[in-house]
Amino acid sequence: MAKAPRKIENYVMGRWMAGEGEELLATDAVTGEPLGSVSSAGLDYEAILDYGRRTGGPALRQLTFQERGLMLKALALHLMKVKDKFYELSYRTGATRMDGWIDIEGGIGNLFANASLRRQFPDLPYHVDGEYAPLSRGGTFIGHHIMTPKRGVVVHINAFNFPIWGMLEKVAVNWMAGVPTVVKPSEHTSYLTELMVREIIDSQILPEGAIQLVSGLGRGILDHVTTGDTVTFTGSAATGKKLQALPHIIERSVDFNLEADSLNAAVLGPDVEPGSPEFDLFVKEIQREMTVKAGQKCTAIRRAIVPENRLETVP
After folding, report:
1. CA 20 to 30 Å from 94, out of 23, 138, 150, 255?
2. SS3 303
3. Average pLDDT of the chain?
4. What is the separation of C-alpha 57 from the centre of its chain, rounded to a whole number of angstroms?
5. Do 72 and 186 lie in a common domain?
6. Per the structure, how many domains does the chain have?
7. Following CA atoms 117, 118, 120, 124 in sequence, which dihedral angle do they give, to the nearest 10 degrees?
């Protein structure tokens, strides 16, 4: 009798749990071997988002910028120590070692980068921005900007090609700002995201509620976002625009950040001679952009524009 595939779980409201049934069978991109059954059906998204606001939010907001930055640094150092386990599983997404390096160590690099921002802020949970503006004679009425964490939760809907980097580049910003997150990676590669989230949770570096994970399709996850919440989407422009236009997103003034369908080009100048450092760099970058992540990278080029008199010299 064939062994049933393991359940790729969700981490919500302080515990790991499987969804109902099977929404997707995740498989090895090379061999086709089943890796796990994915589902988020049956999850209570209203309760999940509220848990982030009530549990993760207050815990993060009470930390100062210095404490949040040091928290990110500690997490980054911890994840670097155990990075080999992420590489091992990353191969099963179809990634090469270089692909994995961008996703894994590039992703962890976002934690280091945001941790270093603590030097720009005081050892306080809030930041007084700039000088006050006198608005009346004698200073009886002034204006001053004070930066404080938002009271909502951030929902991140991420793409299949960067199951780690796509998550860490976003959550690092949120945690430094004192805001909890709910991560919804692509269900096709969420098994790698799940592995890293397990390591994050087991490290006990973050306060409870700072991160939750929805590994499956996440249908209904945006139904309960409200004023003060934020949604980010990385994927196709067509899907992103549909989500951005949902009536309750507009009516509740939910912040929505859309990253989709970039159209980048590499352009060879007419004065660049074959054999020059600039020419060699142009060829090298085209080769890299076409092969790293199989060209499935948000910054990958879609066109190589070459002067007509250089067409025969560009490989």
Report:
1. 23
2. strand
3. 93
4. 18
5. yes
6. 2
7. 150
Are 62 and 185 in a shared domain?
A: yes
Report the DSSP pairing between strands 230-235 and 255-260.
parallel
State the greatest distance between any 2 C-alpha atoms of the chain, in Å, as a whole number. 85
**Mean of the pLDDT values across residues 3-9?**
84
Query: Do strands 7-8 and 34-38 pair parallel, antiparallel, or not at all (unpaired)?
Result: parallel
3-state SS of 57-89? HHHHHCCCHHHHHHHHHHHHHHHHHCHHHHHHH
Range of the domain at 16: 7-123+148-259
- Per DSSP, the three-state class of 280 is helix
Token pair for residue 266? 């590499």
Closest listed residue to residue 39, CA positions, set 3, 12, 10: 10
Residue 181: Cβ within 10 Å count: 25
Amino acid (one-letter) located at 293 = K
List active site positions. Answer: 259, 298
pLDDT bin (cut points 50, 70, 90) of residue 137 is confident
With tokens 């159209």, the residue in question is 263
Using the structure block, give the residue that is written with the tokens 């999940």: 48
Per-residue pLDDT of 48-76, as tens digits, reads 999 999 999 999 999 999 999 999 999 99
Which pTM does this prediction carry? Answer: 0.89
**CA 315, CA 312: separation in Å to the nearest integer?**
7
- DSSP class of residue 28 equals -
Q: What is the average per-residue pLDDT within 260-264?
A: 78
Residues 238 and 303 both lie in one domain:
no
Token code pair at residue 243: 């989500």
